[in-house]
Design a protein that fits this description.
The complex is a heterotrimer.
Chain A (H helix, E strand, L loop, with lengths): L2 E6 H11 L4 E4 L7 H9 L1 H4 L3 E4 L3 H13 L4 E5 L1 H16 L4 E7 L15 H5 L10 E3 L4 H18 L2 E7 H5 L1 E6 L8 H8 L15 E2 L6 H21 L3 E4 L6 E4 L2 H16 L4 E6 L1 E3 L3 H7 L5 E5 L6 H9 L4 E5 L9 H14 L1
Parallel strand pairs in A: 2-3, 2-4, 4-5, 5-7, 6-7, 11-12, 11-14, 14-15
Antiparallel strand pairs in A: 1-8, 6-13, 10-12
Helix pairs in contact in A: 1-2, 1-7, 4-5, 11-14, 12-13
Chain B lengths: L1 E9 L4 H14 L3 E6 L9 E9 L11 E6 L2 H7 L3 E9 L14 E4 L2 H7 L6 H12 L5 H11 L8 H14 L1 E2 L2
Helix pairs in contact in B: 1-5, 3-4, 4-6, 5-6
Chain C lengths: L5 H4 L26 H15 L5 E5 L14 E4 L5 H11 L4 E7 H7 L1 H9 L5 E6 L29 H4 L5 H7 L3 E8 L3 H20 L3 E7 L3 H4 L3 H12 L6 E5 L5 H4 L7
Helix pairs in contact in C: 2-8, 3-5, 4-5
Classes of the chains: A alpha/beta, B alpha/beta, C alpha/beta.
Chain lengths: ~350, ~180, ~270
């Protein structure tokens, strides 16, 4: 067994960053995720691995510092919570347009506006449908445990470099603030500049070499026809992600007549609801999307063979339900249950919702 | 075995750290654990609470509406959580500052006068360990030995000299537990 | 004396001036009389003379010089509007051995990007910042800039900049000089051969500074925008001299390293 600890989700993000060989973290404090930077500052990774940690003047600056680091092929990341992510969307759009990798963590809180500081899942649209301007997608990973907060930092970097596209870890105040047992990853050394040049020399701006054209990291293109080609290339990447990167967990779905679809903390609450429903003789199951983009559309569609109804459980007014409906494609009933504004749904409420909205309705 | 616990009181009473020690003790006996605190402005002088779950199986929801045990350290928390103890469950409270005692008849109720005991001993900081000791007497879900191991694992080396004092407070709490019903 | 024939003129040994190798052959999109081209040329010459082409990263802004990467043969990043200092910070912090410079106009550096500008300098990022101040928004068609002069007409101040409505022109360079993180702050122009030579020296010094890790070097170039100003290039130079130089005086504002860290450090507040 590796290094077993009891840690908060936010603290684990920091530790995982150091251990996966991250080159730089740029951030701005905001509840409920400030422990990420606080942990990094206490740990002083610059002495241990050479990783840079910098408190920026704003989220706007943080994401642009990422743009800078990512342009040189460095593994860079930031973390924030909902209002801060809104400020970053400009930079995220530019990174997607310039095809730059990097990991962004959103520990969601209730909105809109300044909203509450309590856990929420109301940023699903922002995360999965673009968020900023222009046609782009992020790779969106949704951890539902402190262990996955550890695992998905490394996975986020791997996918974001594979597709040269930013990856977003979409989590929430519960997973960020809670402590669980976690087995930390082994240390991976940071890549040297030489290794980065060997791996990513084709596209990084690392200084113009005599044997190649200059590299320009930009999202600007003055000729519409060329920009359309760029867009086609981006879309091809998103289609490739949909083909190869869908991740989900299916719990007791094989014989399920009622399927709850939930991610992040809602999937944990719903898992308990499934246990309670099964105790009452109701064949319930849980389909947990691990990647929100790409979404497990095909899997959900397959479940319509047996399922009489789907319940999308999210701490929002109903955002993911739109993707569930597209996946179910009219074959059966799809309902939503959620609490808003930072209120956390309880397993009992989910049980009642299944009974009232799917069975009784 | 699964034990779902809410610990609630004022910020500064050591609510969160008591929960953390309990969670660490669970890890020391190879259990799954989760610890979810109230956070934000609530931490600063207001009420603080933490949900701690220890289980032999993978823990599903870290957020609950019903608890096996409520450990209650002020009146507001008693008002908020008394109704949320499962029938047959346990409520442990410190009578200091309590003006309206619990009225449920379908649960086990215990008292620990930890605020006074800690003050009398001139060690107010051991308050939360006295409460924890009382809880472990009422519900021996973790061994004292594992609490000690948990403290060793969770505290930085320079604080290890404080472990014996905390274990003494734990044992004191076990002794001073009062069964109400 | 025999007159030189064309055949002699083009002989390599008679060559007295050439385009820097760092300049590409792409024709510039700038208007006749614009200052951008001259400043581009100076940066290119400095990079060539210091032999740092492989180690230099330019951060292009949003504004007329957004496509500056067409003209200098180095690796480039093109930043969102106003964010060049943050982009430069991220690059420089993760690649401390590189020479990193931003090139920004007045809208980019002194309006939308004021926060990024001030904080990058305040942190003393070891970068070069080149600030083209032509008192107008050139690219979008001549709108008012934060540095537009009082009474100066632009498309969004057609009756002249009114202090009651728009406040005063922003002397951001003087503000920058106040920050302990700035090591070298200077204001230059490129409208005569003498000022061009001076400006080049300043740029060279700024690039040399960035290898010394002594803080940010900041060069304002008071510039013309004859298209935006609706004047011809000669009139523009004259208008700049008469109207801008009294308010934006040329010369070094700061050339010193802040060393008061000890003096201003407090006792630790936490054990």
């Amino acid at each position: 067994m590796g290094d077993l600890r009891l840690m908060k989700g936010n603290e684990v993000i920091a530790e995982a960053a150091i251990r996966c060989g991250c080159d730089g973290y740029f951030g701005y404090p905001i509840t409920p995720q400030s422990e990420v930077m606080e942990t990094l500052m206490l740990r002083r990774p610059w002495e241990e691995t050479g990783m840079v940690v910098l408190q920026a003047e704003s989220e706007v600056a943080s994401i642009n510092m990422m743009f800078g680091g990512a342009s040189s092929g460095k593994k860079v990341m930031t973390s924030s919570s909902s209002p801060g992510i809104s400020l970053m969307t400009e930079g995220i759009s530019y990174m997607a347009g310039a095809e730059l990798p990097g990991v962004i963590v959103n520990v969601q809180r209730g909105g809109p506006g300044l909203g509450t500081i309590q856990p929420s899942q109301a940023d699903y649209f922002q995360a999965t449908k673009g968020g900023g301007h222009g046609d782009y997608r992020l790779i969106v990973l949704a951890p539902n445990s402190v262990q996955e907060m550890n695992d998905f930092v490394d996975l986020g970097f791997e996918l974001s470099f594979k597709y040269r596209n930013p990856a977003l870890i979409l989590t929430d105040g519960v997973i960020g603030q809670m402590m669980e047992k976690v087995e930390l990853s082994e240390f991976k050394p940071r890549l040297t500049d030489k290794q980065i040049e060997e791996k990513y020399g084709e596209w990084i701006a690392s200084g113009k070499k005599p044997d190649r054209e200059r590299h320009i990291k930009t999202s600007l293109e003055m000729v519409s026809e060329v920009q359309e080609k760029n867009n086609e290339r981006f879309q091809a990447k998103y289609r490739a992600m949909e083909k190869d990167e869908v991740r989900f967990e299916a719990i007791q779905c094989d014989d399920a007549e009622y399927v709850i679809v939930a991610y992040g903390v809602s999937s944990r609450i719903s898992q308990k609801a499934v246990v309670l429903l099964r105790e009452q003789g109701i064949k319930a199951g849980l389909l947990r999307p691990i990647t929100l983009f790409p979404f497990p559309t095909q899997k959900i569609n397959q479940l319509t063979d047996k399922a009489k109804g789907f319940l999308s459980v999210e701490m929002s007014s109903g955002q993911m339900i739109e993707d569930v409906k597209l996946a179910v494609n009219g074959k059966t009933k799809v309902e939503h249950f959620g609490r808003m504004g930072g209120v956390i749904a309880t397993p009992g409420e989910v049980v009642d919702a299944v009974k009232q909205k799917l069975i009784g309705g | 075995m699964t034990e779902e616990i809410i610990i609630a009181g004022f910020g500064g009473q050591g609510v969160l750290s008591m929960g953390k020690i309990l969670a660490y003790s669970g890890i020391m006996q190879n259990q799954e654990v989760s610890w979810f605190p109230s956070y934000g402005p609530e931490m600063r002088g207001g009420t603080a609470n933490v949900t701690v779950i220890l289980s032999d199986e993978r823990i599903s929801s870290p957020v609950l509406n019903q608890f096996d045990t409520a450990i209650i350290l002020n009146q507001q928390s008693l008002d908020k959580f008394e109704d949320k103890v499962k029938p047959g469950g346990t409520l442990l409270f410190d009578p200091n500052g309590i003006i309206k005692e619990p009225t449920r008849t379908d649960i086990k109720i215990y008292k620990i006068d930890a605020t006074r005991i800690a003050a009398d001993n001139g060690q107010p900081k051991t308050f939360n360990m006295i409460v924890l000791g009382a809880f472990l007497k009422a519900k021996p879900i973790v061994k004292i030995e594992n609490v000690k191991k948990g403290l060793e694992k969770s505290l930085p080396e320079r604080h290890h000299k404080m472990i014996p004092m905390n274990i003494e407070a734990l044992i004191l709490g076990e002794k001073e537990l009062i069964e109400v019903q | 004396m025999d007159e030189l024939q064309l055949a002699d003129i083009i002989k390599p040994e008679n060559k007295v001036y050439g385009k820097s190798k760092i300049m590409t052959d792409t024709p510039m999109h700038y208007c006749y009389g614009c200052s951008h081209g001259v400043v581009h040329k100076l940066i290119a010459e400095v990079i060539e003379e210091m032999n740092i082409q492989e180690d230099t990263i330019g951060i292009a802004p949003v504004g007329c010089s957004v496509m500056m990467y067409y003209y200098l043969d180095i690796d480039w990043l093109q930043a969102p509007h106003g964010r060049a200092p943050a982009v430069a910070t991220g690059y420089k912090r993760t690649n401390p051995k590189k020479y990193v410079f931003t090139y920004q106009g007045d809208g980019d550096l002194a309006a939308i990007g004021t926060a990024e500008t001030m904080h990058a300098v305040n942190r003393g990022e070891n970068i070069v910042m080149i600030f083209i101040n032509n008192a107008i928004y050139g690219m979008t068609g001549g709108q008012m800039a934060p540095t537009t002069m009082i009474g100066q007409s632009t498309s969004t101040s057609p009756h002249g900049r009114d202090v009651e409505v728009n406040g005063y022109p922003l002397k951001i360079t003087e503000l920058i000089a106040q920050l302990p993180g700035s090591a070298y702050v200077t204001r230059q122009s490129v409208h005569t051969p003498a000022t061009v030579r001076k400006c080049k020296k300043a740029i060279r010094k700024a690039f040399e500074n960035s290898a010394k890790n002594i803080g940010t070097s900041f060069i304002e170039v008071v510039s013309t925008c004859n298209s935006g100003w609706k004047l011809d290039p000669v009139e523009s130079n004259k208008w700049m001299e008469e109207n801008m130089f009294p308010f934006y005086p040329l010369g070094d504002i700061k050339d010193s390293v802040h060393d008061d860290v000890e003096k201003y450090s407090v006792q630790k507040n936490k054990k």
